[in-house]
């Protein structure tokens, strides 16, 4: 063996030894850190499966709140080797998911929802990469706060139409649910695609609702066995744990329909030279678009259309439920409207002068938040928080419902009391000096955290405020005989279980005005 060969082998051996030493050193340092920072507390699990079967199938936020009371501000579960950590303290949430969002902005890639069904291409499911950053930039350019003036008249008109539909339905539960969904869906269709909406059975709204139903059923971590055992995606549908495959093709086609059909209309209009104001008309006007770029933009517009309809509709539905259960809130709000704006319907320009109505918006977001457990984040590197070390890959959630119902931050947390968000001067106007307290702003938790905060939250906020102000201006909502106990659906997006109420006009003048404007 010549000298050059020997030297080359020696160099490789040295390089290999250095690499091994580096790996050992990294492992040792990780071990030392693990000794210094213990595992966060949580319920005891079983070998291999851990806590996989500890979470109930419904209303999981209640179980997490129970564990918060038992184990404290940080609760840890292990599921087949995957660590899931819930943060129950608002300061800890802000420290990790807001201030350190550079390491906590990824999403866990659930095999069924994000992989097989494709929601990993949506804005909510994208990894925090260049595509995600570009999507958020486009959201801000098209429906960010500076762009909302383009849509104010549209939203205001649709909310007036909603109030009339609620009035004509007289509070029947099917009418309340469908009218709210139709109004919000119509706004999102108009903003995203400039599509007109049929008064009933609109195919685009039906597509959106069906697709969001699929997302809600598949997007909660730990819900489907295939997310724990990925090999099940290759198993036949009769195999235990692979039953989802019976519906997979149907679900995928439904998702494609909701992405493709509205874009096809927009592209046809662009080809015909039609000029319309919408997000899709703006971004699909790009010349010589590659197939990959077109697919990304279909998911971008689809994310606006799908995500913006379901969550906002739920929030408005929660408001109607709250008025049904708490008539004194309605009375105070209408007294404020009468004293500030008189005998007309509130508009967005009135918002700075209506503190009690503004407080209702915050209380709607708090009383039953639409996403009780928020969206899951995945750490892209180790992170220290609250005296514990969370390894890379840990799934972290902010316990939104738990924080917004914690007696440390809200007195009487299960009651709907908007006055908790009034300052002392405004509270005195409503004889609410001895009001329940609120030391956390629900706005900071209801729309997500950090680089995963809802990019359409300003539009959603405008829709919610105008819905609340318009309904309070024009209608009187009351319970049916026997009262009502609030109940909510489970899933990553939670809605009120449909309920009956009684809806009448506030007075003849408001009914006439509604019919004229709508």
TrEMBL record:
Heme binds at residue 454. Coiled coil: none annotated. Keywords: Heme, Iron, Membrane, Metal-binding, Monooxygenase, Oxidoreductase, Transmembrane, Transmembrane helix. The chain crosses the membrane at residues 12-31. It comes from the Eukaryota. Its cofactor is heme. Pfam families: p450. GO terms for molecular function: heme binding; iron ion binding; monooxygenase activity; oxidoreductase activity, acting on paired donors, with incorporation or reduction of molecular oxygen. Pathway: Secondary metabolite biosynthesis. CDD domains: CYP64-like. Belongs to the cytochrome P450 family. This is Related to O-methylsterigmatocystin oxidoreductase. It comes from Serendipita indica (strain DSM 11827) (Root endophyte fungus). The lineage of its organism: Eukaryota, Fungi, Dikarya, Basidiomycota, Agaricomycotina.
């Amino acid at each position: 063996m010549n000298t050059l060969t020997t030297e080359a082998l020696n160099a490789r051996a040295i390089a290999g030894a250095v690499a091994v030493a580096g790996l050992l050193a990294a492992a040792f340092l990780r071990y030392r850190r693990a000794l210094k920072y213990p595992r966060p507390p949580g319920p005891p699990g079983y070998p291999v499966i851990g806590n996989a079967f500890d979470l109930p199938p419904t209303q999981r936020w209640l179980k997490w709140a129970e564990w918060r009371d038992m184990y404290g501000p940080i609760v840890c579960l292990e599921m087949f080797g995957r660590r899931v950590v819930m943060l129950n303290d608002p300061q800890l949430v802000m420290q990790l998911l807001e201030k350190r969002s550079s390491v906590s902005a990824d999403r866990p890639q659930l095999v069924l929802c994000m992989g097989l069904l494709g929601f990993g291409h949506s804005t909510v499911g994208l990894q925090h990469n260049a595509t995600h950053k570009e999507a958020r930039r486009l959201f801000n350019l098209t429906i960010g706060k500076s762009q909302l003036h383009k849509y104010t008249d549209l939203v205001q008109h649709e909310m007036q139409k909603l109030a009339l539909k609620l009035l004509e339905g007289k509070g029947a539960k099917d009418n309340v649910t469908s009218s709210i969904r139709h109004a919000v869906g119509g706004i999102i269709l108009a903003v995203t695609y400039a599509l007109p909406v049929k008064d009933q059975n609109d195919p685009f709204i039906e597509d959106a609702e069906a697709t969001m139903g699929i997302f809600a059923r598949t997007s909660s971590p730990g819900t489907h066995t295939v997310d724990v055992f990925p090999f099940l995606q290759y198993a036949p549908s009769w195999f235990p744990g692979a039953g989802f495959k019976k519906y997979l093709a149907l679900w995928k086609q439904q998702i494609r329909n909701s992405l493709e059909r509205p874009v096809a209309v927009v592209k046809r209009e662009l080809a015909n030279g039609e000029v319309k104001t919408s997000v899709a008309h703006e971004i699909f006007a790009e010349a010589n678009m590659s197939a990959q770029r077109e697919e990304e933009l279909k998911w971008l517009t689809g994310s606006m259309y799908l995500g913006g309809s379901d969550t906002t509709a739920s929030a408005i539905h929660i408001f109607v439920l709250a008025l049904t259960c708490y008539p004194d809130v309605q009375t105070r709000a209408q007294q404020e409207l009468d004293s500030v704006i008189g005998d007309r319907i509130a508009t967005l320009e009135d918002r700075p002068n209506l503190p009690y109505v503004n407080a209702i918006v915050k209380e709607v977001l708090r009383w039953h938040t639409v996403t009780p457990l928020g969206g899951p984040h995945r750490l892209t590197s180790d992170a220290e928080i609250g005296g514990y070390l969370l390894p890379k890959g840990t799934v972290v959630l902010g316990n939104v419902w738990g924080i917004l119902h914690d007696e440390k931050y809200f007195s009487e947390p299960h009651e709907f009391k908007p006055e908790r968000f009034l300052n002392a001067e405004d509270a005195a106007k409503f004889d609410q000096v001895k009001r329940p307290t609120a030391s956390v702003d629900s706005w900071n938790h209801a729309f997500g955290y950090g680089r995963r905060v809802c990019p359409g939250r300003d539009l959603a906020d405008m829709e919610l405020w105008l819905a609340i102000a318009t309904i309070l201006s024009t209608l009187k909502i009351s319970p049916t005989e026997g009262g009502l106990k609030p109940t909510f659906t489970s899933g990553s997006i939670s809605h009120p279980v449909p309920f009956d109420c009684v809806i009448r006009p506030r007075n003849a003048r408001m009914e006439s005005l509604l019919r004229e404007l709508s």
